[in-house]
TrEMBL record, chain A:
Source superkingdom: Bacteria
The species this protein was found in: Oceanococcus atlanticus
Intracellular or extracellular location(s): Cell membrane
Bilayer topology term: Multi-pass membrane protein
A GO cellular component annotation in the UniProt record: plasma membrane
Protein name: ABC transmembrane type-1 domain-containing protein
CDD domains: TM_PBP2 (cd06261)
Protein family: Belongs to the binding-protein-dependent transport system permease family.
One Pfam family cited in the UniProt record for this chain: BPD_transp_1
Domain ABC transmembrane type-1 residues, every copy: 85-271
UniProt keywords, alphabetically: Cell membrane, Membrane, Peptide transport, Protein transport, Transmembrane, Transmembrane helix, Transport
One Gene Ontology biological process: peptide transport
InterPro entries: BP-dependent_transpt_permease, MetI-like, MetI-like_sf
Annotated TM spans: 20-40, 87-110, 117-140, 202-226, 253-274
TrEMBL record, chain C:
UniProt record similarity statement: Belongs to the binding-protein-dependent transport system permease family.
Entry's Gene Ontology cellular component terms: plasma membrane
Domain ABC transmembrane type-1: 95-305
PROSITE patterns in the record: ABC_TM1 (PS50928)
Chain segments annotated as transmembrane: 9-30, 97-123, 135-157, 177-195, 239-262, 282-305
The name this protein goes by in its record: Oligopeptide ABC transporter permease
CDD domains from the UniProt entry: TM_PBP2
Subcellular location: Cell membrane
Any single biological process term in GO: transmembrane transport
Membrane topology note: Multi-pass membrane protein
TrEMBL record, chain D:
EC number: 7.4.2.9
Molecular function via GO: ATP binding; ATP hydrolysis activity
Annotated membrane topology: Peripheral membrane protein
An example Gene Ontology biological process: transmembrane transport
A Pfam family matched in the record: ABC_tran
Protein name per UniProt: ABC-type dipeptide transporter
From TrEMBL, chain E:
One Pfam family this sequence matches: oligo_HPY
Keyword Nucleus in annotation: no
Protein family: Belongs to the ABC transporter superfamily.
Organism (species): Oceanococcus atlanticus
Domain (ABC transporter): residue spans on this chain: 2-252
One term of GO molecular function: ATP hydrolysis activity
Record lineage: Bacteria, Pseudomonadati, Pseudomonadota, Gammaproteobacteria, Chromatiales
Protein name: Oligopeptide ABC transporter ATP-binding protein
Keyword terms: ATP-binding, Nucleotide-binding, Transport
Lineage: superkingdom: Bacteria
């Protein structure tokens, strides 16, 4: 047995020991496999096909029944998993990374020009109404399939960055940062190795929030013609179902909300478990 | 106003009559120049006066004099209309006028109001109705729109007589004078409020605007509105049809009968339904598609469940308009092609697509199964042309479609990729998916029908008007009950950016259109209309059509017969509320 | 103070210019085109050209931008292209309504969120924590639309409690205000609570582990005083950040969904309509106002940071 | 003899680590008499701070846990008290001076707030009185211009000042027992003397007892009545200060005393030390925990840990099978 | 090797939100000294007198307000960040508060490996062994490497801090209360270790401590600070044998002796401890000085050498001004 372990390997081992964390990671992974299957054309391809009957109850042919147009709800829910991953995960991960890096730089150099520039950028992005911004980006990218992702990342990172910035401004005054400087750790490593891990609790929770917000914003953007151009998403399904639930048809709603809920829940548990794993003071 | 249980009162604490109407959309601009939407028209017709209007209850729609004293006197050549205006009609009191008191409305005001449409700085949305028709009017606009200058075609004979001189016969002219676009505006108001006239109408209508925002409009009765006792028989009252609504109570009384008219703009069906069924909020709603099963006992004939008829008054109304899906004839791979052979192949493709359309599925899915599917391009509300056309254009025939494709040599591989455009919404997306599903049934690969969605109507319209899309789902609301109003949608010179969105270009059709345009109504013209319809059908230009049928519900204490077509908001002046003692409490 | 504020405001000018410039580029080059919405049913090429000229679309970019900056400086944005109303009047009329509408929910959502987060963090890993967090996740996962509709049915409709109005708005008396604002507020609180609780808990858990909390306990501080005083003040930086930077959005953007479902004439709908119809005068004003507000928020946040954490220095 | 103020019996504390359970305290027993100053010395990491935290019920849990024993304060078992009851004891009856003053003080509140809060809670003073009282206490522990320093935040103070703030805070509660965990490590000798004098004076005036944890045997010699020596989670020797310093019986105690640096006239090349290192808590030797470093271990020492056995008469207690005989010095 | 010339560090503290009403705190004022390779300068003085600040300023962890620092003949002050970074390897600090100076989210292994990785010292495979050795040198087990700072006792943390400073084998180390939290036996081990390292590698130490015995043991020279100034600086033996400055003498007398039977005869300093925020005029010590003279109140004393030119013994006190020599002798006699 080796005598010492680093923070990361300890965290990893701790995570492996967390049953809830593992289970939730398993669920997220399961969703990912579903999404992968859609990418690889293994399933979920019938999401748009009209079957013979509209609003059919659950059956072996249609696990969740069909919707008013006669489309298979299960297939739609499955296909939406792909959409959710493309949007939720990519936006959550990328905007968190961007937010962490820029926020840390801005907080570390608070008051200096790099901070000013980043603050300026954040202020600018935040001041422009979200929809206008997304519409413009979509237009600028000529309806590129990733336009929505780009726009969401560009708008969502600022919150993370601001939160990180505030925290970094506090952390950088602590003595252990001074200690790091004393042994000659260069600034970029101070930021990334010493300061950012101490904001991991914020990053994780922000990533979770962004993940959910992205999935939810997608539907609004889809309304505006900026979301998924051709395809379906849980958000769209829920939007479709708002008219149905009033008259007591819940299949669409439950299929989409249920899948969304389980994923969000699992993702939350997963990020909680990560937070625990990354928190040295927390021992099971 | 607190929508609570106490009856509404005025400033003096006296009980007043309030009617709370609802609409599924909001108007933005209340200047008659811009009353282009159903919603704007609703308010404009209640705040401004038009020369003519439609009879309250007569169907098919029939005109009657409104501000005019009588129907116009038309010269034999059909080029001159002499219109006499009722004396003593006053604009509402408004700070725009001297002393704040509304002055009398005169013929010059009518001329002025029509002129405004041709003032280029006004960006009128209704000028196309009269463009090129009234002598000297277009020129007046191009010459700088000097209001002091007279226009030959708008001759103010005296204060109460206006003569309109046309460049060519325009049988629909009287109809246009009943539209919100023709609302009479006093120049004082324009001078004072400028562009903000759009939010504070100053007219001579039965109501005056008290409050207007994105959520609702509050109108108050115009105390000076001219006294015109209503003659129910003349308005088309038929006890067999209209009995039981309590309309008899308004006989011989002068509208408006209510003190306040509130119109809530509610786009969300759930909210509208909750507000309506609540009992003390809006008193009128159209039944949302998803609630159809809740209220209907049978669809054919349309019959409400007893507990609903017990609680509410109801009526159904087929829209004066229709929905259809046009194919862009500009595209050489889908529409007109100089190569006759390809042209023929394209026609087969279009016809096959039309054959694939499952109107009954569409009707059931999106229009509660009560929409009226008809062949051709003239909706039932305008004429009964459709009954004379063959049914095959609206009956699904996959066999025939496949044969067509096969014969014309279309295969999955060489079928063109089509762009299907829509302004994004849940429903339009579902419509698209269904359309694509229909096409899949004749072997049209789903990947070859691409959705192109637009965030705004402006962008969608731009794509249409610049002829970018291949498949164009459309809806058209009639401006007046004349087939001409929809036939012009296929008139060659009207190609985009005009109203001919499918860019149909058929010289034979155009010739007939030009011919009929100056014809007075009659069987002869009807025959030609039929021929024109048949041409469009034969060329498979569009997949048409369905007129939506709406079920309206209103509270029992409201006396009236709602209608949102042609008539626009005109009927609201006839609405009355039963006094508290006459009311039977609405079941909750 | 004045000097500092002025200095900061001056430093905010580049931000305002940047925001306006970028958003202007977005609006002009990539924004929606209003021409074809204003065109009648059967327009001609000339009419379309005329509309473009009227809207100023045919002007060179630089000229249009200069006009914008001048408009911003004089606070005169002209008339809405859609309704024709003066933009300043339009915003002046709708912003207070949206503010009155969203503020209670915003405040409650944050206050309750913080309280729940304190509870959850204090009882970390116990069932209290777990139930609060489950509730938060439910709040996060359910669509806002469903919540609004659900609340409307539950509280306002004849199918539910029927205690509140489905639609309407009035601020004439406090009673009326409460009557109309309650259900929207509940919906806002419910939705924001999930996110807020989740976020604040993460922050607070971190602070609760600090040594000085142990000191406080060693000197007999009650759980309440530890949570509400010590932990809260120590967690203030992320909390302030989160709250402050949502203020411009709360003030200017309102809430489209709430406004349309509850029939409230606020700025949310106005902004939304402006975006979806390309109503540039309104957009210009909204963007400008947001930018200005952001500058103010930036300054206030800096001061607040300093106020709550003495280690942060004002530059 | 009067009843002890604090009676710790067979206290056992464990920490869960990801490598296993570490028993940081393994059956510690000692008494503190009213007004008495008890010194606790021992190898760094032997569990002194853990003992004091355990008395106040502040062992971080998880990972820590008190697995056995009793802590009787004025006859009442603190371990059986609820959190609410315990809160009344903390600060008012027992006050603690923490080892690391930097992290022990709240960075976002001024000294005035932090001390004032304690004073108001335990002494029932008004805000103004509390502030005045806090200033007085700061002055007594030798902080220059306390009326200005009181409005500083912890990061603006030097290490010694922070420590004095902690001390002042503990003293200001006028508790029955002060647990001082290395209270003077960051203080220079003059201040240290001054502060110790204050503490002694307080204990005389108010009869305050004190548990003084320190490495400075000089301080123990001058201020403590009795001293306990701990080694690796065990108490190994306990006695009145005089005899302990004069005749340490445990080899560890003896080694410790020998290692003390003194101001000498002749500079030594190297100081005498105890060879070896403390065993890891997870890998303890089977017998006496000191056995590996002990110069005079016998076979028995390798197989069993010697129990702490006392001499009723002298009050001297020792856990060693083969104690040092006679004077070392 | 280390040459510090007229170093000052002033803080601006207090003031309202906007910094109005700030006052200047002279934490270190006009301090000069030299330390040769393999030598230790012990630094003692009242708490808050500026020892830590001096240590940090020398390493440029605090940017000095004025003055210069040279290490190995090359300047440390006035060089840019990049150059400074390169020189960090040569000089290290052991922090006074070990807990605060350890990153709570890094295991001890992370903390100790970092300097090695950073400065690319030794083959990557050897580094681990080196760290393990080091941790045992400071009296911890290598099992400790995988633990986090909060899992240690105060003394253990302090040893981690020492180990960290030693990893790089710098030329110069500031040891700020490096052994204060250690029990005497470990302390002795560490002190011995320092001596060994010094002999072996010629490391120079600036050794800050309150424990005069320790200082005496470890130092070649000793400096005494009072209120930001170096009031006395001499060879350790000389200073302990013959403390000159009145403050030094008071200090010496207060040392507790680990023998309960010896009664200490300490010189009790009367008078208020002055604040560095408003240092008294003249000699900063005059408010508490048992030997204060009228001129002490008015005139700031200079450094006077009362040793030999080779064996300097600097004292900053009017008593040792050349014109006071007569008086000086009497003082000496009395001590
Ligand atoms: N960052 C800072 N801001 C303001 N004042 C400071 C700062 N750091 C230290 N000081 C002040 O400078 C003076 C000297 O502090 P320093 O920490 O150097 O003292 P010290 O001699 O190390 O004392 P101790 O022995 O108690 O650690 C003190 O009055 C302290 O309050
Ligand atoms: N949270 C923790 N997790 C694991 N082990 C811990 C924890 N806290 C303390 N320990 C261990 O418990 C033992 C006793 O620690 P304690 O702090 O009581 O030592 P101490 O006697 O106060 O030492 P020092 O004089 O150095 O402060 C140490 O070996 C330490 O490593
Ligand atoms: Mg300790
Ligand atoms: Mg110090």
């Amino acid at each position: 047995m080796s005598a010492g372990e680093s923070f990361w390997s300890k965290a990893w081992r701790k995570f492996l020991g967390d049953r809830f964390g593992l289970a939730s990671a398993g669920i997220v992974l399961g969703y990912f496999v579903i999404a992968l299957g859609v990418w690889l054309d293994l399933w979920g391809q019938q999401w748009s096909t009209l079957t013979s009957g509209s609003n059919l109850p659950m059956s072996s042919a249609h696990w969740f029944g069909t919707n008013l147009s006669g489309q298979d709800i299960f297939d739609r829910a499955i296909y939406s998993t792909k959409t959710a991953f493309e949007i939720g995960l990519s936006v959550a991960v990328l905007s968190t990374i961007l937010g962490a890096i820029l926020g840390a730089i801005s907080g570390f150099f608070a008051g200096r020009w790099s901070d000013e520039v980043i603050l300026w950028l954040m202020g600018t992005l935040d001041s422009i109404p979200f929809y206008l911004f997304v519409a413009a980006v979509a237009f600028a990218l000529q309806g590129h399939p990733l336009a929505m992702h780009a726009a969401m990342i560009a708008t969502f990172w600022t919150t993370t960055a601001r939160v990180v910035r505030g925290e970094v401004m506090k952390l950088k005054e602590l003595e252990f940062i001074e200690a790091a400087r004393a042994i000659g750790v260069p600034q970029h490593l101070i930021i990334f190795r010493h300061i950012l891990p101490n904001t991991s609790h914020l990053l994780l929770v922000q990533a979770t929030i962004v993940f959910v917000s992205a999935i939810k914003s997608e539907v609004i953007l889809s309304f505006l013609g900026l979301g998924v151009q051709d395809g379906v998403s849980w958000g769209l399904m829920i939007a479709e179902s708002t008219q149905e639930v009033i008259v007591g048809q819940f299949k669409n709603f439950f299929a989409a909300s249920g899948m969304l809920f389980v994923l969000v829940m699992a993702f939350n548990l997963f990020s909680d478990a990560l937070q625990d794993a990354l928190d040295p003071k927390k021992v099971h | 106003s607190k929508g609570s249980d106490q009856p509404a009162t005025n400033a003096d604490g006296e009980a007043i009559k309030v009617y709370r109407h609802s609409m599924d959309g909001a108007p933005t601009n209340l200047d008659p120049l811009h009353s282009a939407t159903v919603y704007a028209n609703f308010l404009v017709l209640n705040t401004y006066d038009t020369l003519y209007s439609y009879k309250y209850l007569t169907r098919p729609y029939a005109l009657k004099p409104n501000l005019a004293a009588a129907m116009p006197e038309i010269s034999d050549d059909g080029l001159s209309y002499t219109i006499r205006i009722k004396p003593g009609v006053r604009f509402v009191d408004d700070p725009a006028f001297e002393n704040g008191q509304g002055r009398e409305l005169v013929a010059a005001d009518v001329a002025y109001s029509l002129k405004r449409h041709f003032d280029p700085s006004n960006r009128s949305q209704g000028s196309w109705l009269w463009a090129g028709r009234i002598k000297g009017l277009d020129q007046w606009g191009q010459d700088g729109a000097d209001y002091n200058e007279d226009v030959e075609g708008l001759e103010v004979v005296d204060d109460h007589t206006l003569a309109i001189h046309l460049t060519k016969p325009y049988p629909q002219l009287t109809y246009t004078l009943a539209m919100g676009f023709a609302g009479v505006v006093p120049h004082e108001a324009v001078d004072k409020y400028g562009r903000e006239l759009s939010i504070r109408p100053v007219g001579s209508g039965p109501f005056r605007m008290a409050k207007f925002d994105t959520a609702k409009a509050v109108l108050e009765a115009n105390p000076h509105f001219r006294q015109e006792p209503i003659d129910l028989a003349a308005e088309g009252f038929d006890p067999a049809i209209h009995g039981g609504l309590g309309l008899e109570a308004i006989e011989g009384r002068s509208p408006p009968f209510i003190d306040r008219l509130e119109i809530d703009f509610i786009l969300e069906t759930a909210a509208r339904w909750n507000s309506f069924t609540k009992g003390n909020e809006i008193q009128f709603t159209s039944v949302p598609v998803e609630q159809t099963d809740t209220v209907l006992d049978s669809r054919d004939p349309i019959k409400l469940k007893p507990d609903w008829t017990e609680r509410y008054h109801s009526t159904t109304g087929v829209e004066a308009g229709f929905v259809f899906t046009s194919l862009n004839m500009d595209k050489p791979y889908l529409g007109h092609n100089d190569d006759p052979q390809q042209d023929a192949r394209n026609r087969e493709l279009r016809c096959a697509m039309r054959d694939a359309m499952d109107w009954s599925a569409r009707n059931n899915r999106f229009y509660s199964g009560i929409g009226v599917v008809f062949p051709g391009i003239v909706p039932p509300a305008a004429s009964d042309l459709h009954s004379k056309l063959p049914q095959d254009s609206i009956s699904r025939n996959l066999e025939r479609a496949r044969t067509r494709l096969e014969k014309a040599g279309w295969t999955q591989d060489n079928l063109p990729t089509l762009e299907y455009g829509f302004q994004n919404s849940v429903t339009s997306r579902q419509l698209f998916e269904q359309f694509r599903g229909f096409m899949a049934d004749i072997g049209y690969p789903s990947s070859k029908i691409k959705p192109v969605s637009f965030a705004t109507f402006g962008d969608y319209n731009k794509a249409i008007k610049t002829s970018q899309l291949d498949v164009i789902p459309m809806g058209w609301g009639l401006d007046y009950p004349d087939s001409e109003n929809t036939l012009q949608l296929f008139y060659g010179p009207n190609h985009t950016p005009g109203s001919n969105n499918s860019n149909y270009n058929n010289p034979a059709f155009d010739a007939l259109f030009e011919k009929t345009a100056v014809m007075q109504p009659g069987p002869e013209r009807e025959k030609l209309y039929l021929d024109m319809s048949q041409m469009v059908l034969d060329d498979c230009v569009t997949i048409s059509g369905l007129s939506r049928n709406r079920i309206y519900l209103w509270h029992k204490d409201v006396i009236g017969l709602p209608n949102r077509e042609i008539l626009g908001g005109f009927w609201l002046r006839y609405v009355d509320i039963k006094n508290a003692d006459e009311q039977t409490a609405p079941a909750s | 103070m004045l000097q500092y504020t002025l200095k900061k405001l001056l430093a905010g000018l580049p931000l305002i210019l940047g925001v306006t410039f970028i958003s202007f580029v977005l609006m002009v080059y990539f924004g929606p085109d209003k021409t074809y919405e204003l065109a009648g049913k059967n327009p001609t090429e000339e009419q379309i050209a005329q509309i473009r000229a009227d809207l100023g679309y045919d002007q060179p970019f630089f000229k249009r931008y200069t006009t914008y900056v001048i408009e911003l400086a004089t606070l005169n944005f002209g008339h809405s292209d859609s309704t024709g109303e003066r933009v300043t009047r339009l915003l002046g009329r709708t912003i207070p309504i949206s503010l009155a509408l969203t503020l209670p929910g915003f405040v409650l959502g944050n206050v309750i969120g913080i309280l729940l987060a304190l509870l959850a963090a204090y009882y970390r890993s116990t069932w209290i924590d777990k139930s609060i967090m489950t509730f938060a996740v439910v709040g996060m996962s359910v669509s806002f639309l469903i919540i609004i509709i659900g609340f409307q049915v539950m509280f306002s409709s004849a199918y539910g409690l029927n205690m509140f109005p489905v639609r309407g708005w009035s601020m004439d008396t406090l009673g009326e205000y409460l009557y109309y604002v309650t259900v929207p507020t509940l919906a806002i609180v419910f939705v924001s609570l999930g996110y807020n609780t989740r976020f604040y808990r993460a922050v607070i858990v971190e602070e609760l582990g600090k040594d000085h909390i142990r000191t406080a306990r060693a000197y007999g501080a009650s759980a309440r005083s530890i949570l509400l005083k010590r932990v809260l003040k120590n967690s203030m930086i992320p909390i302030i950040t989160r709250i402050m930077f949502s203020i411009p959005l709360v003030v200017i953007s309102g809430s489209l969904l709430i406004e349309s479902y509850f029939g409230i004439p606020g700025v949310g709908k106005v902004t939304y309509d402006a975006i979806t119809t390309g109503d540039q005068p309104v957009l210009k004003a909204v963007v400008g106002a947001t930018a200005v507000l952001f500058v103010v928020v930036l300054i206030v946040t800096d001061v607040l940071y300093r106020l709550f954490d003495p280690r942060v220095e004002l530059k | 003899m009067s009843e002890p103020l604090l009676k710790v019996r067979d206290l056992q504390v464990e920490f869960h680590t990801d490598k296993g359970v570490a028993r940081a305290l393994d059956g510690i027993s000692f008494d503190v008499m009213p007004g008495e100053t008890l010194g606790i010395v021992g190898e760094s990491g032997c569990g002194k701070s853990v003992t004091s935290l355990a008395i106040l019920g502040l062992i971080p849990s998880p990972p820590g846990r008190i697995v056995g024993g009793q802590i009787l304060f004025q006859g009442q078992d603190l371990l059986s008290l609820s959190e609410r009851e315990m809160r009344k004891v903390r600060g008012r009856d027992i006050a603690m001076i923490f080892q690391e003053p930097m992290t022990a003080l709240d960075p976002v509140f001024t000294i005035a707030t932090q001390m004032g809060e304690v004073l108001r809670r335990h002494q029932g003073l008004t805000r103004k009185q509390a502030r005045q009282s806090a200033i007085d206490w700061l002055a007594r522990v030798g902080i220059p211009s306390p009326e200005r320093r009181i409005d500083d935040y912890p990061h603006q103070l030097s290490g010694g000042m922070r420590q004095r703030v902690m001390i002042a805070m503990a003293l200001s509660c006028e508790p029955k027992l002060i647990i001082a965990d290395e209270p003077t490590t960051a203080l220079d000798v003059t201040i240290q003397a001054q502060v110790l004098e204050q503490i002694v004076k307080l204990s005389q005036d108010l009869g305050t007892a004190m548990m003084l944890i320190t490495h400075d045997l000089g301080v123990v010699a001058q201020t403590c009545h009795r001293a306990c020596v701990m080694y690796c989670g065990k108490l190994i020797e306990q006695s009145a200060t005089g005899p302990l310093f004069a005749a340490p019986a445990h080899p560890y105690t003896a080694g410790l005393l020998a290692s003390v640096p003194r101001i000498r006239t002749q500079r030594l090349d190297s100081l005498p030390t105890i060879a070896g290192t403390v065993p890891d808590l997870l890998h303890l030797p089977r017998g006496c925990r000191f056995v590996e470093r002990c110069g005079q271990a016998i076979d028995l020492c390798h197989s069993a840990h010697p129990p702490l056995q006392g001499d009723e008469h002298s009050g001297h207690e020792l856990a060693c099978y083969n104690p040092v005989q006679g004077e070392v010095r | 090797m280390l040459k510090v010339t007229r170093l000052s560090k002033h803080f601006h503290i207090g003031g309202n939100l906007l910094g109005r009403g700030k006052s200047t705190l002279r934490a270190v004022h006009d301090v000069s000294f030299e330390v040769a390779a393999g030598q230790t300068l012990g630094l003692v003085g009242e708490s808050g007198c500026g020892k830590s600040t001096l240590g940090r300023a020398v390493l440029r962890l605090h940017e000095p307000t004025s003055g210069t620092v040279e290490l190995d003949g090359r300047p440390v002050t006035g060089i840019d960040a990049k150059a400074l970074h390169a020189r960090r390897r040569e000089m290290q600090i052991i922090f006074q508060d070990p807990y605060a100076s350890l990153n709570p989210r890094r295991t001890i292994l992370d903390t100790l490996m970092e300097p090695l990785d950073l400065h690319n010292i030794g083959a990557p495979s050897e580094r681990r062994a080196r760290v393990e050795k080091l941790i045992e040198i400071v009296g911890l087990r290598k099992q400790a490497l995988s633990r986090y700072p909060h899992e240690f006792s105060g003394g253990q943390r302090q040893r981690i801090g020492i180990a960290r400073a030693l990893t790089l084998q710098p030329k110069f180390i500031v040891a700020d209360e490096a052994v204060s939290a250690l029990d005497v036996s470990v302390q002795a081990q560490v002190l011995n270790l320092i001596r060994e390292l010094q002999d072996e590698f010629g490391i120079a130490f600036l050794f800050i401590s309150h424990d005069l015995a320790v200082v005496q043991h470890i130092s070649h020279q000793v400096g005494v600070m009072y209120l930001g100034q170096m009031v006395e600086l001499a060879e350790a033996e000389t200073l302990f044998a013959q403390p000159r400055h009145p403050y030094t003498r008071a200090l010496m007398s207060a040392v507790p002796v680990p023998d309960p039977h010896t009664e200490s005869q300490r010189i009790v300093l009367s008078g208020d401890v002055p604040s560095p925020l408003s240092p008294p005029s003249g000699c900063p010590f005059h408010t508490r000085c048992p030997d204060a003279m009228p001129r002490c109140k008015e005139q700031e004393p200079d450094n006077h050498n009362c040793g030999t030119p080779e064996q300097a013994h600097w004292v900053r006190c009017h008593l040792y001004a050349p014109e006071q020599v007569g008086l000086h002798n009497t003082q000496d006699a009395r001590a």
